[in-house]
Amino acid sequence: MTGTGAAPSGAFDADLVVVGCGPTGATLAGLAALRGLRVVVVERDRELFALPRAVQCDHEVLRILQELGCAEEVMADGIVNEGLDFLAADRRVLLSFSVPPLAPTGWPTSVFFHQPTLEATLRRAVVSLGVEVRLGATVSALVQHDAGVDVAVSGAGHLRARWVVGCDGARSATRQVIGTSLRDTGFEEAWLVVDLQLEGAVPGLPSRCLQVCDPSRPHTLVPMPGGRFRFEFMLLAGESADELLDPASIRDLVSGWIDPALARVERAAVYTFHGLVASTWRDRRVFLAGDAAHQTPPFLGQGMCAGMRDAANLAWKLAAVATGGAPDRLLDTYQAERQPHAQAVIDAAVEFGRLICLTDPQAAAERDAGLTAARTGTGALTGGSGAAPNLIPGLARGAAVGTGGGALSRQPTIDGVRLDDLVGPRTALCTAAPLDPASPAAGWWSVHGVALDATTNPGLAPLLEGREACAIRPDRYVLARGGVEEVTAVAASVLQGHGAPVAAGS
Ligand SMILES: Cc1cc2nc3c(=O)[nH]c(=O)nc-3n(C[C@H](O)[C@H](O)[C@H](O)COP(=O)(O)OP(=O)(O)OC[C@H]3O[C@@H](n4cnc5c(N)ncnc54)[C@H](O)[C@@H]3O)c2cc1C
Q: pTM (2 decimals)?
């Protein structure tokens, strides 16, 4: 792929070309189309990748899928995650986290799914929103101009678009066009991932996720829907992938938990888990999202979730610039917001990984003692038992977030309708009292968003946290809380560039 060229002439084929139709690309395409952009997704493979990698998603992802109209279907195919236990080598519980069945977003906190089934559902939803998906087509070159990007598609001519987003996975060629390096957290461990198809009910398998902190072989157990079950085993020093992929070795490893005769290996693969974040996510009209921008060890089940958060963050900003008169610098807030967020989640996953991957018996014994002390409240560690800690941060203030903003908003149900369904793909203002129809704020919101008040809709009151007003961005993050005029000024600044500038990178 290449870089800059002469100015293009001729009309655009699309507002947005998305490279890659994995979960990130499909989500971005759907959310952008929902906001009125013409979107083409170019995907190298003809068929969906038939084997799962991701198995867990969180409530925020379900909320994003809600907007795309397919969350209920994903839920129907999934199973709700009840919790996560850390076990010692002797299977004693070191830590036990319960997962609240319902998050404040109105969706289950965590759900196990089958990735190919989820992706098939997602693709159907996205196509029904008007996205053109070109399968079996590889983006081979990108040439940027002031007004747009020319996208060469192998054997299928080219496309001209206002923007291109590389959602082309860990080996992203778009990343090379942007010319960015990957920052490495220094974590690198190889794990064998084994997905089993169970022959009926198999005794001995948990309904929760287990992290087995056994220094002789750290491993993970994850329930999956559809009669499947996942095991993950860490490779030890000196072991090769081929050794562990040997069918006899796989049988031996899973026999610690089940009778191997009761399950069929659907697939086995060795992955190297690491934590990487691209330094630059945007070069003028070309962006990165998903695994192309960041990769995490899967200990928190957050890689795909992070990609879908990228999509939700970027889609409304592209639409606001394309059709809503927002300044181009709003697009710089994409990396300013998403990069530190992705990095924080990766750092938390790496911390979990370092805890789990200990193979030195002495260090493992000290870890076990520390975790036990945390669980029983006798040690220095806190939050070691009970509800799972929320390791997912909000957004830093200073990008496209004002005072009181940055957290993912709650989603109440109002007269049987979820808030987001009521609001649609718009920015929303929630107020304690109805707006004066003659006020400038009422005028502004009638054009640029939607205003709801807690007098008419009492379910909105918790969103206000005692303030007069709360504005919610189209990606459902709180934009600002405070007085009506103050919050409206922040919204006008972000969406139209009026008043205080939107700062990038702060
Ligand atoms: C073992 C394992 C367990 C995991 N568990 C979880 C989990 O529980 N929860 C979670 O959230 N995440 C998990 N993940 C991470 C998750 O699978 C990934 O983060 C996610 O699939 C990345 O999605 P993506 O759309 O960014 O990239 P991909 O899924 O890699 O999609 C990229 C797409 O781009 C296409 N493409 C590439 N180059 C081109 C080109 N030049 N032209 C056209 N198309 C192109 C590819 O064909 C591909 O379809 C796990 C990962 C692993 C390996």
A: 0.95
